[in-house]
Amino acid sequence: MSELADKTALVTGGTSGIGLAVVRRFVAEGAHVVVTGRNPEKLAAVADEFGDAVTTVRGDVASLTELDAVFAAIAERGAGLDVVFANAGGGEFAAIEEITWQHFTDTFEANVGGTVFTVQKALPLLNKGASIVLTSSNIDVKGSPSFSVYAASKAAIRSFARSWAAELVDRGIRVNSIAPGPIATPGLSGLAAEPEQAEALLGGLAAGVPMRRLGTPEEIADAVLFLASPRSSYVTGSELYVDGGASQI
User: Selecting from 1.10.630.10, 3.40.50.720, 3.80.30.20, 3.30.390.10, what CATH number does the domain 8-180+215-242 have?
Assistant: First the structure.
């Protein structure tokens, strides 16, 4: 039996990397998936790949107006929401002396504000027994030079997961966070200042993982599916680390 048969899921930031892998996994498990992203060409590619199994809506989670359009499209379908994967976000390197107000604002608006208001606007549409999964990072419990603003934003996500789990438990809604380690995605490679530096960056990150490799988006998608599905029915307020042991060993 498919894990998400006849369920409706929302995946923000679902056009590449982890988000796209989760869309593929959810569709394979029988869900209709509403996919958001900022790039119209990438959204069109998602629509072409999955056809009627998805609804694509252009939307930047840092824009309340665009979030309203996303949830209007979901409301129009009339099936509510059974899963929310609040995944959209990102970050850039900046040492403490290099942090600008714009860098700080952009990071927190996308990662924290976007998550807060995605979940808030989803609340009226959530069906009983719904699952909310937030994308944090294993960096939320670690120190990382030149990545402090990003790390702080992900620590905030972890805190929200705990508080919202407590707030929504009486509605039968579970809230958990997923904490990936370094994952082989275009976003990770894009942290390198120059393309030729990406190989060195990825190699260095892999060397810091006890399993001595980067994770794959598909491995994260499997973990997200567990938190989204009834298999995790007794799990809420938790964070699942999928990082090759980097935060634990």
Answer: 3.40.50.720
